[in-house]
């Protein structure tokens, strides 16, 4: 490419030299065409573009706006925004198109603050924005979560009469959804004159990305009822929502649509299908799909590796990683996170350390350890009783540990009831993330397990003083394509009386074969009978009783919980799977537990 470039530059120079006595118009026309062709064929490296710019300056053609525009566009595409800005600043009264090109370049290269700054300069100079200006300025506001700036741009949109432009309105909708102003996003969406597929896709995707998976699925169903046909973008978002909620039945229905519409040749769709099945606990189905995929990429492999780890089959996760490497597919940081998770869930300390060192020694910046990888190794060391080693590992980190890293160690201190280290780590966390209730709860649990109820009360008083509220636990079960949510002691469900009857009978059955309630983490100021009653109405127990009523055998009962499953409920599930001869698949905050015939896939290591 480079020799060809120099040849073209030489040709232009020779032409100018040999035709210096020709008329200005004819030579300029030919030279302009030559430079345009040269720019088009040499946009793979920024230094080539700089050489062309130098030649433009020597020929006097730098005043040709079309050539400068082409050069500026090429620079932004290559990501050389520093030189692009220098070039732009030398322009005399650039038109709005050139302003738009620079703003777009900053947004495309993840420099949203610079994009907003250029827009403000543009407005200060009195340059009139057009329909192509606002979409990228709004994207920049969304990237930095700046609601105030977004509202200011929205006012400009209205001022220039562009508030009904479909593209601008869609970006406004996305901005409001991104910053959490969902009511404003919905208002804009519902007031659009044409509910086109792009707008639907955009809103559904943002709901998924902002943690509103339930709302995303609701919008998906409304879209279908409105007669708008989903495309590959739609189903990727819908499948991601199902994965986040653990809605396997709904995910299967969307998967049938994918097959019917021949969307299963799309790699992005297939990866979303893999993710959905893996995160809904149907890892066998995910593997069958993976084996049949005509094309795979690093995301496909990483999804399966992480899926096996999450579902408790660490051996298969690591075997798949070996197959991936043998196939010549380069792992990325997500792949290694799955590998380290597999080691963590199985207590494989030696292997976990080896994989982590492999990352550190890698020359590929895309696999260098990030905070989540450090947290994973801390979790592995801590859960395996190597608490001091985990603490020293954190202290030796080359990057500043965040709350996630320290939180992993505090969780391990809770499991192994290390009060001294737990208090020290908790103090660090209270400074790093004082508003996070789970860290206070973990410290409280350490004290409770050791019978230090006075210290438990001190933690609770501190939480009340700071206004920190404990996250309310809930468990969800999907039955007949509907998600049923339960809270502890919940009696709001229409089948509540039946649920409690089934639960009471179930407790009798499992007690007769050895189940004993674990009351160590229940409030100390209760009588034993009250403690057992509190345990018996935990949300996951109610969800299981509901599942026994509404999920036909031999289908598994699938429960999704927002917090980590407690020790007593874990024991309860094992006994229940034995006396009912039913498989129970529980997804808690950290992983899956597959209960079958009285045992759990986690082998009681979680």
Write the layout of secondary structure elements.
Elements: H1 2-18, H2 24-41, H3 46-59, H4 65-78, H5 81-89, H6 96-108, H7 112-124, H8 134-143, H9 147-159, H10 166-178, H11 182-190, H12 197-209, H13 213-225, H14 232-245, H15 248-260, H16 267-279, H17 283-292, H18 298-310, H19 314-326, H20 333-346, H21 349-361, H22 371-383, H23 387-395, H24 403-416, H25 419-432, H26 437-449, H27 453-466, E1 474-479, E2 482-487, H28 496-512, H29 528-536, H30 539-550, E3 557-561, H31 567-580, E4 584-587, E5 592-596, E6 599-600
Parallel strand pairs: 3-4
Antiparallel strand pairs: 1-2, 1-3, 4-5, 5-6
Helix pairs in contact: 1-2, 1-3, 2-4, 4-5, 4-6, 5-6, 6-7, 6-8, 7-8, 8-9, 8-10, 9-10, 10-11, 10-12, 12-13, 12-14, 13-14, 14-15, 14-16, 15-16, 16-17, 16-18, 17-18, 18-19, 18-20, 19-20, 20-21, 20-22, 21-22, 22-23, 22-24, 23-24, 24-25, 24-26, 25-26, 26-27, 28-30, 28-31
Question: What does this molecule look like?
Answer:
The chain is mostly helical. 66% of the residues lie in helices and 5% in strands. Helix 5 runs antiparallel to helix 6, helix 10 runs parallel beside helix 12 and helix 12 packs antiparallel against helix 13. The N terminus is likely disordered.
């Amino acid at each position: 490419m480079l020799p060809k470039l120099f040849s073209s530059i030489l040709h232009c120079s020779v032409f100018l030299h040999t035709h210096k006595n020709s008329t200005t118009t004819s030579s300029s026309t030919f030279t302009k065409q030559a430079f345009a062709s040269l720019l088009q064929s040499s946009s793979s490296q920024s230094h080539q573009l700089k050489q062309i710019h130098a030649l433009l300056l020597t020929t006097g053609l730098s005043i040709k706006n079309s050539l400068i525009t082409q050069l500026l566009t090429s620079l932004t595409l290559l990501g050389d925004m520093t030189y692009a800005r220098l070039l732009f600043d030398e322009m005399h009264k650039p038109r709005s198109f050139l302003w738009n090109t620079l703003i777009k370049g900053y947004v495309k290269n993840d420099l949203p603050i610079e994009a907003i700054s250029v827009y403000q300069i543009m407005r200060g100079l009195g340059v009139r924005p057009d329909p192509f200006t606002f979409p990228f300025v709004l994207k920049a506001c969304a990237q930095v979560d700046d609601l105030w700036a977004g509202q200011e741009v929205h006012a400009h949109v209205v001022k220039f009469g562009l508030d009904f432009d479909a593209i601008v309105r869609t970006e406004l909708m996305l901005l409001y959804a991104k910053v959490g102003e969902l009511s404003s996003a919905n208002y804009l969406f519902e007031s659009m004159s044409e509910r086109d597929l792009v707008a639907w896709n955009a809103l559904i995707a943002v709901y998924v990305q902002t943690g509103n998976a339930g709302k995303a699925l609701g919008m998906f169903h409304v879209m279908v009822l409105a007669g708008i046909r989903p495309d590959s973008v739609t189903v990727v978002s819908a499948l991601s929502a199902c994965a986040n909620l653990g809605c396997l039945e709904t995910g299967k229905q969307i998967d049938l649509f994918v097959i019917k519409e021949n969307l299963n040749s799309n790699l992005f769709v297939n990866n979303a299908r893999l993710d959905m099945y893996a995160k809904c606990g149907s890892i066998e189905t995910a593997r069958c799909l993976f084996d049949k995929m005509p094309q795979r990429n690093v995301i496909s492999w990483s999804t399966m590796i992480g899926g096996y780890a999450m579902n408790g089959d660490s051996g298969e996760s690591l075997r798949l990683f070996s197959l991936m490497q043998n196939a010549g597919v380069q792992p990325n940081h997500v792949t290694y996170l799955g590998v380290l998770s597999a080691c963590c869930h199985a207590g494989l300390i030696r292997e976990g350390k080896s994989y982590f060192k492999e990352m550190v020694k890698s020359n590929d910046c895309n696999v260098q350890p990030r905070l989540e990888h450090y947290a994973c190794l801390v979790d592995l060391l801590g859960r395996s009783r190597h608490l001091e080693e985990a603490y020293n590992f954190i202290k030796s980190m080359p990057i500043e540990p965040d709350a996630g890293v320290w939180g992993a160690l505090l969780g391990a201190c809770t499991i192994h009831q290390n009060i001294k280290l737990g208090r020290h780590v908790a103090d660090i966390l209270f400074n790093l993330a004082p508003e996070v209730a789970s860290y206070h709860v973990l410290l409280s649990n350490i004290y409770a397990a050791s019978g230090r109820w006075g210290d438990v009360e001190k933690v609770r008083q501190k939480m009340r003083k700071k206004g920190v509220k404990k996250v309310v636990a809930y468990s969800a079960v999907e039955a007949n394509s509907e998600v049923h949510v339960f809270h502890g002691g919940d009696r709001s469900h229409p089948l509540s009386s039946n649920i409690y009857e089934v639960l009471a009978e179930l407790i009798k059955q499992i007690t007769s074969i050895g189940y004993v309630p674990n009351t160590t983490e229940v409030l100390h100021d209760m009588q034993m009978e009250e403690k057992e009653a509190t345990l018996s109405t935990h949300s996951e127990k109610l969800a299981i009783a509901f599942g026994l009523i509404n999920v036909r055998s031999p289908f598994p009962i699938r429960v999704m919980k927002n917090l980590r499953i407690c020790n007593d409920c874990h024991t309860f599930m094992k006994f229940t799977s034995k006396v009912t001869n039913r498989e129970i698949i529980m997804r808690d905050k950290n992983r899956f537990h597959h209960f079958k015939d009285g045992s759990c896939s986690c082998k009681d290591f979680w």
